[in-house]
Amino acid sequence: MSALILHTSSGIPLSFILKSDLTQWQAQQSLFIQNWLENTGFDKQGLALIPDPQTGELAQVFCLMDHRDDFWAAGELANKLPAKCYQINGDAKLIEQVALGFVLGGYEFSEYKEKASLKAQLGIADEQLYIRIKQQSDAINLVRDLVNTPAADMMPQHLSQVMADLADTYKGEFSQWIGDELLEQNYPTIHMVGRASENKPRLLDLQWGDESSPRITLVGKGVCFDSGGLDLKPSAGMRNMKKDMGGAAHVIGLAQLIMAANLPVRLRVLVPAVENAVSRNAFRPGDVIKTRKGIMVEIDNTDAEGRLVLCDALTEAQADKPELIVDFATLTGACRVALGTELPGFFSTDKDIANGIMDAGFNVSDPVWQLPLFEQYKSYLKSNVADMANCANTPFGGAITAALYLKEFVEPTTPWVHFDVMAWNLRSLPGRPAGGEALGIRAVFSYLAARFN
User: Fold this and answer.
1) CATH architecture of 2-125
2) Angle at the Cα of 348 from the Cα atoms of 192 and 233, rounded to 5 degrees
3) Mean pLDDT, the chain, as a whole number?
4) Which residues are marked as active site?
């Protein structure tokens, strides 16, 4: 969808007018434009296409915006405007503010359609601004594409190819452990969750950047389809489980953004990629598994599999002593109950990092919200036969207990951030079509760019 943005200084002028300034602004326009706006109900429609009085060709476009910081003011224009190229009138701050929303709003997952819809395009004259907008839109739309792809075409081997291609593009290194190699290399929980599928489980590992730079490790839950295992989900709960690899999609998109911007970090991306299927060798409720860290875990519910694949990956993530570990996962419905589907929750062991990410998110209109690692709830993970259970014995505080489970596999000296995301838009909003979505990666990237640049 990067064709929605062009590096050009030509295009039909597109101007934004504050609603509070409308009366004064309109009085300053030509009589032709005043009459046109009056007769087309610009004050109610919020969008006006002005023709050339001589030729009748589209000459300029006016769009109302609610306030000066309206990041999504152009979020519907790629679909509403005629399929031509437009140029935003205004200073660099305004252009940067609304351009990304324009491009993201034109996203369409068309892989399985005979023909994609024609969209309006946005021209940006400033080369550096064009590059920044393109890098961000490409990364976000990559996340969307990965999440939207049907599970049959987005299994562990497909995720593997995506990461291998990224490594090739940005001159990184890619390696993976497949099937029984996971047992040989001591990643037992990843193998256990994925062993029932004919699509072999894998641990995917991408590394990039100067080895002397600060080390940042990203971990993403890559459950390519989640049936629930033997604790089978109902059909309604299973319908959109192609999105259960949304955490992997997020770290892949974030990694692309970091590499494209050439941030001065040593980046590592770990994705435990599995399908949680049902077969004669599926893992069972009541089983006990010895994790990579050595903690014995009793399986209380096979549908709490995301934290199982993540715990081995988080243990590995600390092998090279990174300055920060960030994981993304579509982990709990409880987080959606707490914050809704459009505000991702996160947990952190470092107050300053958490505050920095929250501030960065609000500054770039990608809000995220910190939830507490309330240690008192750890007792809900108690097991009578093992060191701990994989899920709590109560439905309350589910996002917190899931985070507390993961925290057991992170060393206290390692700053850690855990995102529990929906990875999906249930409704269409300006700039955010229904379907797969990237939530929080611009916030994290903005924080990392400010910290390490």
Assistant:
1) 3-Layer(aba) Sandwich (3.40)
2) 40
3) 97
4) 233, 307
